[in-house]
């Protein structure tokens, strides 16, 4: 997969939810994630033994609003177009409510949300050679996706998330793009890979984006107030050199973005 060799990549996301059993069951049935552990009000789900989503139940948490900073979507990267096609057919047969589908030039993506409104993308990358324009810049768009053509790529039935499925990227709602750029580029060390009206995309190792930040719903949003439903934290995985560089710049591997969301950086192999 195109993100696998990046010096910094997404480890997992942590979400706070009101109805833990209902949301956990959704990620198991709709996305085919395996329940890796359950401890009290925490459920960890993933693929291939790797945690991709950690759910924390808190019935008393404030319900987040669509206008504040936080999660836009968690994007699950399938290892092949055939795998995405198998999932699409599963979603149709299971009547999983879909919210949209787009051809982003760099990828083919399908959108939905969990029962508490946390955005989800399920996608597959196109070959890296197809990502660039004539000037060598990453070029993305939001074009219509031919779902029928995609479905024809299925090579069998969906039997659950493939072992090598990962969280390819996390798209955030932010209060201002310049502040997001200063944090992700200057503190975390992810170069800006592309801009879109009201959004910036940051990637490591040449990947089209591991993180995005947009103001489409959240322009001028202030700091988040916790405890609240929705995104609790994003965990990154960095190789030794990048982990050390982040600690040198920030003084810690436990960061906080400009809107108060914890960004935790683990060292690969630790």
UniProtKB/TrEMBL annotation:
Annotated GO MF terms: dioxygenase activity
Pfam families registered for this protein in UniProt: Glyoxalase
Coiled coil: none
Record-linked PROSITE patterns: VOC
VOC domain segment(s): 9-125
UniProt keyword list: Dioxygenase, Oxidoreductase
Protein name in the entry: Catechol 2,3-dioxygenase
